[in-house]
Amino acid sequence: MVHADSYRTSEHFPSFRLLKIGSCVLLLFFTVSATIFTEASKLEDGTYQYNTFVIPCAVEFVKLMASSAMFLCERVARKESQTSLSFNIRSFSLYAFPAFCYFVSNNCMFYIILYLGASTFQIMNNLKVLSTGVFMYIFLNRKLSWMQWKALIMLMIGCMVTQLSAKTVEGDHTVDQSFYAGYILVFVSAIASGAGGAFSEKLLKGKGIEQHRQIGKQGSIHWQNMQLYSFGLMFGVVSLRMDAKRSASSPGQNLIDGFNAFAYLTVATLAICGLLVSFILKYLDNVAKCFCAALSMLCVALLDSAMKHEMIPLCVALGMVLTGLALEQYNLS
């Protein structure tokens, strides 16, 4: 209770408000940067020279190391270096659920692109906006007004419209088992992403968990991130091992073979995005994260048009209008 009161009081400080706004702006910047670096890391034929399954594993490792370093600095600054660190297995094990959800969502992405194409994935991936709202109600008991639900639906439609173009249809997909499997995985990915985000917010804000009601080490965002990223790294290693068994790569092959400068920049920017998302989930909510993702999508589309010296497509302009209206309507409510 004391922690909740101190949190509400801190919101009234202008510096804290600026910090929250700044975190959203930084998340927008680094999300766009990660997209650009990922595209730049491709070869001329559009393929990746490196093993793409290494990227999520490397990102989780970097986030874990960064959180550990910041946690140690925090303890030294508060003169807690001589204090014993309490550890609770039950509290720690709860972080396995959101980590597993992210693991499922990230791995579904590759198969959805394989079965349905990249453009269809970009469009259907926005279903996670609605699933996020549903799981915020389930896990956080956060009841959205009808106007807020309409804003989320408008945001989802705006994201989908942005991705629509004459090039959306990528070949003639035969209605077979893989086609149906692709759409099943779309819904699995949306559910996993929404559940993981909402439950992560529940853990980071310490709602309904006794260990997190205490001020101190258990409430430290860096300590919470360390627990989450530990499971994320474990699942990332599992994914990497599964891919190694499927592929015919030689046992002595280096994991970072084929990595170029843009691949390393992709890992760095995605790691920063992950840390910023944790901050936003703890001090804002999942809806703020969804709006940042929608705005980043619009920025990438605008940059693509600018680099090609083309007029802004009508679908992008409509997406910008719908996203702006959704943002205004959600906050007015």
Largest sheet: none
Low-confidence stretches: 1-10, 166-174, 208-217
Q: What distance lies between the first and last C-alpha atoms, to the nearest angstrom?
A: 27 Å
Number of helices: 13
- How many domains? The number is 1
Order of helices and strands: HHHHHHHHHHHHH
Residues in β-strands, percent: under 5%
Structural class: mainly alpha
Q: How does the overall form come out from the CA principal axes? A: globular
Overall helicity: over 70%
The tally of beta strands, per DSSP, is 0
Radius of gyration: 21 Å
The overall average pLDDT, rounded, is: 81
Describe the structure.
With about 325 residues, this protein is an all-alpha fold. Helix 5 (about 95-115) packs across helix 10. It has 13 helices and no strands. Helices cover about 75% and strands about 0% of the residues.
Short note summarizing the structure:
The chain is built from 13 helices and no strands.
What's the layout of helices and strands?
Blueprint (H helix, E strand, L loop, with lengths): L1 H9 L3 H27 L13 H24 L11 H6 L1 H21 L1 H7 L3 H13 L5 H18 L13 H29 L15 H26 L14 H23 L2 H22 L6 H19 L1
